[in-house]
Queue: 4 jobs
Job 1
Amino acid sequence: MEDTYGFIGFGLIGGSIAKAIKKAKPDCSIIAYQPDHNTIDSHIENSLLLAKKECIIQIITTSLEAFSCCDIIFLCAPVLSNIEYLEKLTTIVKPDCIITDVGSVKGNICNVASSLSVCKNFIGGHPMTGSEKTGYENAKEYLFENAFYILTPNIDTKPEFLTRLKQFVQSINAIPVILDAKEHDNIVAAISHVPHIIASSLVSMIKDNDDKNHTMLSLAAGGFKDITRIASSSPIMWQNICLTNKESIQTFLTLYKDTIDSFLQLLVPEKEKELLHFFENAKEYRDSIPASVNGILSKTYELYLDIIDESGAIALVASLLASHKISIKNIGIIHNREFQDGVLRIEFYDIIAMEQAIVLFQQHNYTIYER
């Protein structure tokens, strides 16, 4: 008999997990929870209906009792809500059910789990991938391919449950990594939470200091957009993250502030060598990040292509790629001052496809920009 999976929360991550499950196990059953109609967002309700129409969800339920038959339950709501649902599931789940979450903070929910009767059933989870786009409509079955998927068992977790969840993670083509909950929270504060706060702060700095004609906004080009991309993520999610991982975030924000203060001391003529050394060290370390594995900020495989300003130019590029069986993930025209002429941005699923496209475009005398 195929497994039954339960989902509480069905946005980008929950929807992507469900799609990945259906790809790996087409005959499995997926149950999704729909909150009370008096409190549910119409967007959530529409997402669940769409997922059922697409045959990703088999059952939409308004009662948590329906999760009593589940083999694995995924808590995919905001961090604080996940804790509330975990407590409610305590008397519902069957003995061999695994409960896991997908939140970016593990300490709070793992501490709560350790005090509940389901402590042996719960394993914290954090798929380290995603997008600034939210909602089920942006969910992708391949979102977890080659992405790290952190698991944070507690001292009471049954070893066979951890083995089962590791095997599940591998079945959706992700890479399981076992960490202590506190260690996890420190790591993600440094490489995810603080960078998000910095990105949002940069956007706020521009907003607060722009002129009445919004000149800064209109001139913001690729570099600013790239470094602030994550500031477009869900505000509610990031509010929850900051409230539940405050201690680790404070630690690394303080370290970042110290780095900025040190950098300010280099902005004098006699410190030109130290200034160069600062950027050289940063470049060397940044370039050492592996390109083959997705992190919090997933590796993108993209190039920028000069196109002729005439009708059919984009169709010609797409046809050229299709004729050589090169799939693209995304395509669009860049509208900013970074490039003098019209430039087409093309994103690929992997580096092999991108390299094949580069050779192909060079053979047809296109001008290519790589970043």
Note: The mean pLDDT is 87.
Job 2
Amino acid sequence: MRSPLGSVVVFVAGLALLASCTSSEQGQAAAGEAAPAKIAFAPADGATEVSVLDPVKITVERGELTEATLTSPAGEPVEGAIAEDKLSWTSAEVLGYGKAYTYAATAVNADGKEQKLEGTFTTLAPAATPRATINPGDNATVGVGMPVSVKFPEGPVEDKAAVEKALTVETSQEVEGSWGWLNDQQVDWRPKEYWPANTEVSVTAKLYGLPYGGGAYGKADLSTQFTIGRNQVVKINTPDHKMNVYRDGQLYLSFPSSNGDDKDPNLNTPNGTVIVMAKEPVGDFSNPRYGYTNVKKKWAVRISNHGEFIHENEENRANIGKVNSSHGCVNLFEADAKRYFDSALIGDPVEVTGSKANFPTTSDVYDWLIPWSQWQTMSAQS
């Protein structure tokens, strides 16, 4: 008869032998089979309120991607590519607002064993996507005082710093300038001094997907390319009854004029630097406030939204070159007005001095009425 102790010893030894065999088999399995590929998505499966700007990435560990796709709700593939090392796929186009996208990926491990994974996510749905505009338009040729204007006519911008960071101005020659917010719905870029003549300008506004604040996001990117023309500046010292036109700093044309009534500051042609805003072969100068209607004048060049123009006024011929008698406009003889009209570009500066009143900062374009040091403080980046 064997002793109980001997039985216990034999039993324990048997357990030890069994355990040893099991560990050996798992070790051989770990050494003989490659770990499965591990696929990951960013944004994660089920994510919501995803930015439309952030690239979608599909990555793999312990293997290589053999296929990766991102599909729109319409079933259209989103452009993207697998990296050369086959460890990732990255999207190459922006996404749409408020849409559910589906991604799928296949990867293989070192043994060629496939692993598949699918998922979905949803992009953010803005409370509003207000449109924006940019000026000057493509292929325009403008004067040396022309600012770049980005406007948001459908509502105010709260996050001005974010918007300003998305705006880029590139020039064919070095130009110092800055953005300045004229109000909550308009930001302008102007140079410190007038643009150098013949500068090529390219402006990009990467606004799509950009948060404006208050739940509003940019509707679309904008861009424009335009050219600065020759340097032409009008200078008017109102007591001189004369309008001088300079090209490249040299006197180019000089015309007798009748400017705003000297005695009444409300009728002065105000002091300040403005720009040519529009040109009309025939302008309507009716003003019931002063008792005249159906007044048409030729070769009208608008220089402000305050009411000032440069135009012909043969009815005031007796005062042109002698007396300032207009209601704020610069009156010229018809032939002179036509000659100036033909020479002018939108954006040409008009510098007025000698008056009792100053231009108010209420016009659409008053950038040059602001001193440079003050203009710089109007940037959201200052």
Note: The helical segments are 4-32, 160-165, 334-343, 372-377.
Job 3
Amino acid sequence: MVTLTGNSLTMDQMKRILFENVYVQASDDSLHAVKKCREKVEQIVDNGEVVYGITTGFGKFSDVFIAKENVSALQYNLIASHACGVGEPFPELVSRAMLVLRANTMLKGHSGVRLIVVEKLLSLINAHIHPVIPSQGSLGASGDLAPLSHLALVLLGEGEVFYKGNRMETKEALAKEGILPITLEAKEGLALINGTQAMTAMGILTYIEGEELAYQSELISSITFEALQGITDVFDERIHFARGFKEQIQVAERYRNILSTSQLTTKQGEIRVQDAYTLRCIPQVHGASWQVLNYVKEKLEIEMNAATDNPLLFGDDVFSGGNFHGQPIAFAMDFFKLGIAELANISERRIERLVNPQLNDLPAFLSPEPGLQSGAMIMQYVAAALVSENKTLAHPASVDSIPSSANQEDHVSMGTIGARHAYQILQNARRVLAIECICAMQGVEYKGVEKMSVITRRFMEDARKTVPSITKDRVFSTDIEKLTSYLKENFVSDRFVGQKQI
């Protein structure tokens, strides 16, 4: 069970909610804060005060007063009109994360919703009823309006959901779980859709998978290191302490641990004086990507506990501000793209060193019969295509902005686009690393599996259950996709890397 307070949600807790399906509940203090805040909203409505988003229209219509008897209709119209997202739906785990984040921000007690709104969100999470939310259509300021409107529709019994592996009408899933839809009242529609929960949820899933892929890249490149008989002097801690970057130091330590029992690695001068950068500079390059990951995690953990709707209520004060603007997450996800793209870039160059006979002493393209059989030749082509595609996706979304709402909303973050592209880069990078893994395992078989380190050999034995050795040419696309799925579905780092941080 994870208890939401509005202030203390962590990445580890989100990982449990998403991948271990733990239940969620609200703390008593946060529920009390929600109730107190709601009393102020009802006072504003009863008194006929003019307050943006409570008794007025939205955006450019902020100067239109809404009478008390029309407040409920205003909220429904807001949700219905704004639910115009397009494209393929977000992954179901992103939808689940959006529900959690939306409930958590309301539990801060600044949004002005009734308790029943939070309770319904928690009910959806615990019943595993996840809104079908189109992934395109958000500008990332005024919040993720279109995606969150599709989420809000489910509370009203409308739209579609994912439920027990099926996509169905919301009312059917709610009926199966005995959950009744609600009618929104003053401020609640706006509180549901004015925020950064789509980009943040997409960012959370991307980060969790990206962190795991970074650890997997260390295992996979360690096998490459053995296949190419790399020089382990480059991991000496004195080199990395001399520079001082924490993440670089940690990466080098993990490689020393992974390769400590290997009989395939070499020392300086035994075979060659120094290796190419793709081996020699692994701690520096991978360490820099870990710096990116740590930055992104910090920003996401702040945002997942943030009040990002508008207006916000603080006791008797109501402020119209701009916490819905996604710029911090837009920058973070654009930064993430660079860090993960570089893990793929350096991996593709290691693949080249594994398959190019001019750069190693292995059979050309790792072929069992060079010339008659092509071996891994075209796998390197695929890796090259994927990293090239990543370079276009890595263009920062956050440098773009298009005015909206008749220039009332004249600068936007495009953070949700950045988060979506980050996830695409991650998928491409995983396939590149899967290709490196296939090639590295084949290469090390020529050098002697019995000489591998204890850790890399255990990992290889596990991976070989998914992709067998190359004894003759076959449709390698199947192997790449199978190993990619293995890397995505199995968080292997705990089993094979052990202690991750210093």
Note: The mean pLDDT is 93.
Job 4
Amino acid sequence: MNKEFLKEILKKVKSGEIEVDKAADSLKDLPYKDLGYARVDHHRSIRNGFPEVIYCEGKSLDEIEGIVAEMLKHNNNILASRATKEVYQRIKEIAPDAVYHERPKMVFIEKNKLQKTKAKILVVSGGTSDMPVAEEAVVTAKALGTQVDSLYDVGVAGLHRLLGSLEKLDEADVIIVVAGMEGALASVVGGLVDKPVIAVPTSVGYGANFGGLSSLLTMINSCASGVGVVNIDNGFGAAYLASTIILQIEKARREG
């Protein structure tokens, strides 16, 4: 259920194409559908612009299948995060068009083709080991209809690799920086650009990085201005935030 679907129903009621009772039936599951183990939020895309995303960890295969089946009834695009191959295989049984992104462990079902934004997100990673989180951000941004590019393995251990790609930084409207170890890359990027930087600490690193806490603390203590930080390994959250910023940029350009 999205705003365009809702507008279409209201237009048909106004023109007399459908009766009020029939229109009410198509809206009966708003604002949510109670499945007993989950309350599927069909109203979210109307409120926030994006459908609910399924976080798969901690859910059984039957529960995930039930949630997906309910969302499919409303013809929404569906994004499932932290999904194993086993989860993907179960989803594919009821949604043959489901696509699995193995590195970030995400499933995407595209029911409605989204027009890509002109404004762009750039996802930057410190090292190849950070790519699962970086790719979670990329897949999420694409699923939300945002134009996205990537720049991987440009960490501060070889700063010339980043400095050799300044054109990509300049072209982006929002930058997501994904880094583990000490997480210094976010502060470096923040000092080079005049746009929002969303930092994602990762759990990549040796023992004393405390599962990503070292990079988290570095990022939230960044000396560069304009750097915001999400939680450890939360590529999804960074991309969601970045996409909302991109949509506001697009809106301002349309109205300006």
Note: The chain has a mean pLDDT of 87.
